[in-house]
Amino acid sequence: MTVTDEFLGNNETYAAAFSGPLALPPRRRLAVVACMDARLDIFSILGLREGDAHIIRNAGGAITEDAVRSLVISQRLLGTRHILLIHHTDCGMLTFTDDEFKTDIQHEVGMRPFWSPESFTDLDEDVRQSIRRIKASPFITHKSARGFVFDVGTGKLHEVK
Amino acid sequence: MTVTDEFLGNNETYAAAFSGPLALPPRRRLAVVACMDARLDIFSILGLREGDAHIIRNAGGAITEDAVRSLVISQRLLGTRHILLIHHTDCGMLTFTDDEFKTDIQHEVGMRPFWSPESFTDLDEDVRQSIRRIKASPFITHKSARGFVFDVGTGKLHEVK
């Protein structure tokens, strides 16, 4: 049995207790942008219930062009009005540089990435950088955003000012 | 009290029962790419535990350049080897066209998006499209990928072949 098959088995248990469809627009008008890290269960960390908030996740929780795309769809079509950013301690994005990552790929597969890997060196500063990108985007019209660092050792969120 | 403050209160409860740091690389060597939809609690749908899998999410669960970036970091730096895609019924991405979305934004804020909104018209076909993009990317070197549609009415995953 593959890993995916095992998780499909878990889905049968989930569906057996499922209580039916909720509305499409997020009930709490919130969009969360968080790192893809395996240790971050965003629903549990924030006590979210199904239907509360959009969850956007990528490597680092970066405000990339694609995160902007998702936030614009979230705000314009589905009515979210607040953004909550979650980065975290012990992040993989702190362990390499963009240049070395791109060069390694170039050596292995022949083609150099035409995109920025978005590594960073300072967690709090990267959260501030993300908020600055939100403020600067002409497409994100609702600018209410707060940024946090999740501590993978304690489970706590610390706000970045 | 704002919505964010309320969720920060929930985080105190979460942290009080937190059991300490896990390893950085995903234990099950899995990366999930899913839609940002508020009704999709990926940990619960798949019975994932903290530390099992990377979770990448955006509007539609699309394989965009940023999803490729995240998958490449997931595979090269953190050892994941399987990709699981989750789209879902009643998706917001079925409710508009890219052209009308970009024109609406152009009329409201003056600047036309230079990115594709990635709307689609056929759920199963969009899952297949995503898998094709994975297969075609020179940067994603581990191609093992399966795609599913989550039914927001029943809680069940249906595999797209």
UniProtKB/TrEMBL annotation, chains A, B:
Keywords: Metal-binding, Zinc
Coiled-coil portions: none
Cofactors that this protein relies on: Zn(2+)
Gene3D superfamilies assigned to the protein according to its UniProt record, in alphabetical order: Carbonic anhydrase
EC number, UniProt record: 4.2.1.1
Signal peptide: none
Domain of life from the UniProt record: Bacteria
InterPro entries: Carbonic_anhydrase, Carbonic_anhydrase_sf
Enzyme class: lyase
Pfam families linked to this entry: Pro_CA
Family, per entry: Belongs to the beta-class carbonic anhydrase family.
Name the UniProt record assigns to this protein: carbonic anhydrase
